[in-house]
Amino acid sequence: YSIFSRFIPWLIEIGCSFQDSDDEISHLEWETVRVRFVKAGTLKKLVEALSTDDGELETTYINVFLATYRSFSTPREVLKLLLQRYEELSDAPPNGKIDQHEQHRKTLISALHVWLDSYPEDFKDPPNHAALTHLLHFCEEFLPATELHAKVQHRLERYSREAQVDPLLAPPPAFALRTAAAGWRLYKLPEVPVRHFAEQLTRMDVDLFKKLVPHQCLGAVWSRRDKSRSHEAATVLATVNQFNAVSFRVISSILVEPGLRVADRAQIIACWIDIAQELRLIKNFSSLKAIISGLQSNPIYRLQRNWQAIPKEKIELFEELAKIFSEDNNQWTQRELLMREGTAKYADTVGENDKQLQKIFQKQNHHTANISFGTIPYLGTFLTDLTMIDTAIPDVIADGLINFDKRRKEFEVLAQIKLLQGAANAYHFNGDPAFDRWFDSILVLDDRDAYQLSCQIEPSGSNAKCKKKASGGHQKNDSIASTSSSNSSQFYCDVDSMPSSPHNSIDRKLSPSQMSNSSSSSSLPSLDVSLNSSHSGGASNKLQVPCNTGTLSPSHSQKSSPDFYIIKVTYETDSVETDGIVLYKSIMLSNNERTPQVIRNAMYKLGLEGNPDQYTLAQVLPDKEMVLPSIANVYYAVNPSYNLNFILRPKRSEDSDVAGKSSKGK
């Protein structure tokens, strides 16, 4: 396997003599140490590299490997290679160095201990827990009555007793409502304790964030199409569901009573802004982002008369909070906040021009001096970074070696999540059953109903126009879509998502004209991942990549062209198991790739096998699909004025006949 060596100056001793005389002496002693980094290798060699040539455990390497190996292997496969390596070392060494072999075996046992302790979920595979059972049989044969044997035995017994699914991670039923108890108070917006509401939302987020398994955020793991493996990203999907649940309730609570007076509805909007303010103070960026997204969705943002009834200071506060998630400079504001406040006791970072937040921070410093909070990040930021790494850097390099440099970059992002999870232990909020019941009781609207209610509350031109815009063949369900409007960022994760703009979702049940209507209609906000939705959103309120890697807007396309595009491809299938679910994979499109090569790349990302000639690739435009010719240079054939969404589908027999005739005609 490939080893990368780097010279690193190693500080040995610094000595300084601070004297006033001219004979002051200051010296630095140092030496250069050669450090090895694994760049790439076969899976077997990467497993062997867990112990160094001297038989020592490489702590940095094992941390990176165990955090990222699911991108290119499975727990069962890695365990098999690890145990095979131990058995090989049990044989007499050809060079007679028995002690060295013994040291290597001890190191492999240490690696198994680290694996069991750090990633217990890898061995929890109900009902049989195959990997753990395999390890138990190994211990009974090679390591009986050892600490590892006892640990594996105890772990297997405990897993067999535990429930198969964590109820916190299970998707909520459509109309779940917790039973009321005598004496519970009833909440009704806007007369609610906003600080208490922020704390309760944070309590819900903390429970999920602490259970989040960082490696499930890897682009190659959580975006897998195979539904039978959806449990591998269960903690990510649970976080997504909670984010969506908050956003939908913001929208529904504002729209659900169309007969409210303008002033009363404005008070509800202002109440959500106050809750968002409290979330900022206790550093919960997840629910903060969800509320901002809900308020910026088309059904809410278009209610101009209601917004005009809100005090100017409150509007300024809302804009300052929304600015946190600005997409400028690769979401620099949000990243800086996480860097400054991630492990700090309380929020204290505010921009020079954020006058309203400055006033609020000055007040809170007097009341929360002795209170410390953790930080709940907006997960979309990390998912975007990991998806970018997964898309931009190849999985394998020359000779089919696994690119371990890529895994090291992914580990840097996962380490940030792990650090924030540790800080989240500082939160301590007691549950409020009355809040839980209120949260469950909010009627969740789908995007079509929300937009129709919005038009009913405040018609735009005419009711007929609103009805026309709201029609688009949407299916009713309560986890959808993307946000629209204004200038904040919204991460819409189409599974292996890349940032997107207007027409960012494809419903395979719709015709191209219906897709166009669907895309132009309003949408609800969402951190969306392969949920039961195929809707799309309004304006460009998305978390985007740096400008040289994304798709071009119409205004940019005439000025210059990037060296490559990032396109999103979904696979059209008639499978009942994936009905109603749209999954995207992002691939890089350079300026010299023709249709067969692009199809081959898409097939690789989507996990499809076969001949690329048996598939067609079509770009989805607002009013039609553009099927790419088999010999086209895709870079120049696509229309960059629209979002680069594509459908890959198997050729039908008539397609092949038509293609054959047209090629003969040419």
From TrEMBL:
One Pfam short name: RasGEF_N
Bias-annotated ranges (Low complexity): 479-489, 511-534
The keyword rRNA-binding appears for this protein: no
Annotated N-terminal Ras-GEF domain residues: 34-160
Domain Ras-associating residue range list: 563-653
Gene3D superfamilies per record: Phosphatidylinositol 3-kinase Catalytic Subunit, Chain A, domain 1, Ras guanine-nucleotide exchange factors catalytic domain, Son of sevenless (SoS) protein Chain: S domain 1
Protein name per UniProt: Ral guanine nucleotide dissociation stimulator-like 1
